Amino acid sequence: SSFPKFKMQKTQLRQIVDNDEVAYDLLKRLLICDPTIRMAARYALEHSYFAGYDPKKTVSSITNAKTNHMQYDENNNVI
């Protein structure tokens, strides 16, 4: 193989997600090396980890926060 050899760290995934079982389940499924059994992104977005997440609200709040800090000139152009 042309890939460099390295020793894998033995860090426990559960330590990284601070014992959050739902996050652990999602990451465990996303980090499977074999793409034929790894969870696809579209299914990951349906995982219970994202329950209650509304991307429209998030985008809206980011946009509002961004525009609140912008400065405008007399023609309403962003400075």
Task: Map the helices and strands.
Blueprint: H1 13-16, H2 21-30, H3 41-44, H4 55-68
Question: What brief labels describe this structure?
Answer:
Kinase-like_dom_sf, mainly alpha, 4 helices, about 80 residues, about 40% helix
What does this structure look like?
By secondary structure, this protein is mainly alpha-helical. It has one domain. The protein is 41% helix and 0% strand. It is built from 4 helices and no strands. It has helices at residues 13-16, 21-30, 41-44, 55-68. The chain is elongated, with a radius of gyration of 20 Å. The mean pLDDT is 77.
Short description:
The protein is an all-alpha fold and 79 residues long.
Low-confidence stretches: none
How helical, in percent, are the residues?
A: 40-55%
Strand count? 0
SS-based structural class?
Answer: mainly alpha
Strand content: under 5%
Q: What order do the SSEs take from the amino end to the carboxyl end, as H and E?
A: HHHH
What is the count of DSSP helices, taking H or I runs of 4+ residues?
Answer: 4
